[in-house]
Amino acid sequence: MSVYFVQSVIGGPIKIGFAINVAKRISALRTGCPFELRLLCSIPGGRREEHALHRAFASLHAGGEWFRPEGILLEKIRSLGAEPSPARAWVPSDSVVLRSDRSGARRWRVGARFSEGARLAWVEIVDRGLSQGALCRALKLRAGSVNRWLWGLSRPAYKARERLLQVLGIPPVTWFSKSTIDFKPPSEYPTMATFATP
To answer: Are 120 and 189 in the same domain?
Structure first.
């Protein structure tokens, strides 16, 4: 058995888990992740060693077995000979490599239902420094549903729109109107002010 450290190729949270077959486990994780994942490193160990690492990095916990790539966690991974990517917001952009299209290009495109509500949700996520797990827990909703709304692949149902109004202050009607400005990843802006206001 091995304890592994996995991260998306675009950066962001690091998963610390254990598996008998690390390659098979990462393959299974890729099925549920829209981003390409890479193995940073693995060390001998099992559940006990995994839990010890979870406790050691508890201050960086982002949800589930995922941890923010900061401070002591980055030092630990570097001491094992790996170089993690920097922390980045989990935001789609035309330059983010995800899946191949028919032409062979591997680029993400915002979905046809990308709305002003989705754009406002991204603004709130970044401004509040929310992780995906924290947002889903606050909304009491599954990650898959939230991701589909944020990327414009679907719209939230009535009850979810009401919950989004309560938690993030996003008016339900905005999920049916086209975004007022072109969507760009927040990392391209010097401040969130230009992203937040049309």
So the answer is: yes
- Say whether both 120 and 52 belong to one domain: no
Nearest-angstrom CA–CA distance, 45 and 35: 27
**Residues contacting 129, CB < 8 A, separation 6+:** none
Per the DSSP assignment, residues forming a β-bridge with 42 are 4
Q: Which residues sit opposite 178 in a β-bridge?
A: 115
- Of 137, 63, 57, 129, which Cα lies nearest the Cα of 90? 129
Determine, yes or no, domain membership for 180: yes
- Determine contact, residues 126/87, Cβ cutoff 8 Å: no
pLDDT tens readout for residues 69-97: 888 898 898 898 887 765 544 443 333 33
Residues 116 and 18: their CA atoms lie apart, in Å, by 40
Q: Within 13 Å and on the Cβ side, how many CA atoms surround 158?
A: 0
Domains held by the chain: number: 2
Inter-residue contact 193 to 99 (CB < 8 Å): no
Q: Name residues whose C-beta falls within 8 Å of residue 39's C-beta, 6 or more positions apart in sequence.
A: 4, 5, 6, 22, 26
Tokens 């009491």, residue located: 140
